[in-house]
Amino acid sequence: MIIDLERFTATEKPFWDELERLLKRVEDDPACRLGVEGAARFHYLYQRASAGLARLDGLAAPLEFRRYLESLVARAYGEIHSARDNAHRLVPRTWLLETFPQTFRRYIRQFQLAVLITIVGAVFGAAVLMVAPEEKGMLLPFDHLHGSPTERVAKEEQEAGKRLAGHKATFSSSLMTHNTQVSIACMATGMTWGVGTIILLFYNGVILGAVVLDYLAAGQGVFLAGWLLPHGVIEIPAILIAGQAGLVLATTLIGKGSGLTLVARMRLVWADLTTLIGGVALMLVWAGIVEAFFSQYHEPVLPYSVKIAFGVVELCLLVLFLGRSGRGGKVAKRG
User: What residue ranges do the domains of the chain occupy?
Assistant: First the structure.
């Protein structure tokens, strides 16, 4: 019996140690959520420890050994069946500076996939416009992009932003509303197992690629940069993060190899999806304000160099925020 106990302990101890580490992590950080894969692993370790506790009845196990395993199983059971998430209050500053960027980084692979899909769409849109320039009206959904870029630039510079006089706030709110609708659709269509999200990301890429090629080919690259960068460096990443959320939703629905029910998987990611789309909404509010009150003013009112510099600074700050913010705090890691 002693030999069996030693063999049993040598086999199972690594799994108990892993369960102990997971328990310490969730007990030390009330905001910690393990995610689909992490929760599945936690549940497996709990079941294995429970089975090990049952096996002790046939082994000559010391009382202290049994009590240790009973305590471990009881703690794991308590964490699995607790309702601790419902007791948390939303702290806006913590949510913005820690929870949102941490959640973004946790699903970085889905964000990278969203970027890749958009780039493929941009290459396709540019290629179609290059091969069939007469199809520009079909590729670009906005009327002001259908004409000659050179003519548009001349008109914009001549108007000097006067067309928005008196209704900048209305224009800004309409931009926010439209872009938020696109973002929500990008996430919600993850319900189609990601097909709808992929199509929307690809289509947005097509538009972006066609516009960039059209203006570059007309020699209006400086205008394009001055027009797009101030709001685009926030708006485009916001759409990509919405696509990221859609791909997270799709992955959760598919649930390959998780061992959890659909309801359990959705429960685990719902807070993260809400966080991502909430962050997107804030980004789009800022992008809408910048586009209405800054991007639409061109030379001679605003030098293009100033607008480009403003956009570059925004982009650098956004990269730092999403990449570094919240690293010093407690990170609610996904397993």
Answer: 5-84, 92-324
